[in-house]
Design goal:
The chain has 333 residues and is an all-alpha fold. The protein folds into two domains: 5-173, no CATH class; 199-229 and 247-331, no CATH class. It has helices at 5-10, 21-34, 37-49, 56-65, 69-80, 85-88, 109-112, 117-130, 134-143, 146-149, 154-173, 199-208, 214-221, 252-263, 273-279, 286-295, 305-322, and strands spanning 250-251, 325-326. It has a two-stranded parallel sheet with strand order 1-2.
């Protein structure tokens, strides 16, 4: 009997909330064997950051406990490369205090065996705090080890499969269906790279803000083509006990500076929207920038790319600041 990836994944559109966990585990085996690596990595990444699954750090700790020595070392090396040397000395009982930061932070399978899943969970939380882009890097890593992904449970796998279904749906809507998928998946949501409803701006938020930051929740819920509103403060007349918790402020400059150091590239993210998108691992093409301009309601001539680029950079920094980002004053209005 022939296998149709698109037909299988269509069952999980909408996140697979009603999916049978046992069936999701079985389906995931088929999908992992038949889907492109990039599609699998995207689905896993969305499961790692979804509010329908346990926190990212908890799932990393769980997969660490189920990994073999080489897989455990691989996980740790991904996490360690995203934590500054100063923070390394404060986690896992100071075990990594003598390691250099960045990609030079490497451990052996024997060293990885000295850590408990709880210590790895703490490490993952620190890594995500310093560089939210670690979620994507871990998604790529786990996509190379599908047996590890299965240990997070059927409910999380259903979320991953749902994200993959959305990705196929988006390509189909754009007229480029993936191999093995039907030309029309009969769905009408308008999402873009990253699986959220906010398009490129939403992808920027996901790269910079922690997965459960209110900015990412707003980006996921906002209709396509609109920018998320800044988190609203409680009314003055509201009782103190009912006021919402303060929005977590994220140091955008520190995160991007750390990413710059780890990238090994000379990218001028402070003034160039092209370099900012490259640093975040996003599409920096002229077409992508025109799409971002449309999302942000740019009224100028998009054929004048120099003027548009200057405006885009300023507006992105404004949006980051308005949604809980700490942005240098000279980079915003």
């Amino acid at each position: 009997m022939s296998f149709n990836l698109g037909n299988l994944l269509n069952q999980y559109l909408g996140g697979g909330a009603n999916a049978n966990p046992a069936q999701a585990e079985n389906d995931f085996d088929h999908v992992a064997q038949n889907s492109p690596f990039a599609a699998l990595a995207q689905g896993v990444t969305q499961a790692l950051r979804s509010d329908q699954t346990p926190p990212f750090s908890q799932m990393v700790g769980q997969m660490f406990s189920n990994g073999n020595p080489e897989q455990r070392a691989g996980m740790l090396n991904q996490l360690l490369s995203n934590i500054s040397p100063g923070v390394l000395s404060s986690v896992a009982g100071g075990l990594f205090g003598n390691l250099a930061g960045g990609d030079q932070a490497r451990v052996s399978p024997e060293q990885a065996a000295q850590l408990s899943p709880e210590q790895v969970q703490e490490l993952a939380a620190k890594a995500e705090q310093q560089n939210p882009g670690i979620v994507e890097r871990m998604g790529d890593f786990y996509a190379q080890h599908p047996t590890l992904i299965k240990t997070i449970g059927g409910a999380a796998l259903a979320v991953a499969l749902g994200a993959m279904a959305k990705g196929i749906q988006n390509r189909s809507d754009a007229g480029t269906p993936a191999a093995g998928t039907p030309a029309n998946t009969n769905a009408n949501t308008n999402t873009t790279q990253g699986g959220n409803n906010m398009g490129i701006l939403g992808d920027i938020f996901h790269k910079i803000f922690p997965s459960r930051h209110p900015a990412n929740e707003a980006a996921t819920q906002a209709p396509a083509g609109t920018a998320p509103a800044a988190p609203q403060a409680a009314p003055q007349s509201a009782p103190a006990a009912s006021a919402p918790a303060a929005v977590q402020q994220v140091d955008v400059e520190q995160i991007l500076t750390n990413m710059q150091a780890q990238s090994g590239q000379q990218l001028n993210w402070r003034s160039s929207i092209v370099d900012l998108l490259k640093l975040l691992g996003l599409d920096s093409s002229l077409q992508a920038r025109k799409e971002l301009a449309a999302e942000l309601n740019y009224s100028g001539d998009t054929n004048d790319s120099a003027s548009m680029n200057i405006w885009l950079h300023r507006q992105v920094m404004n949006k980051l600041a308005a949604n809980g980002g700490k942005v240098p004053a000279d980079l915003k209005d």
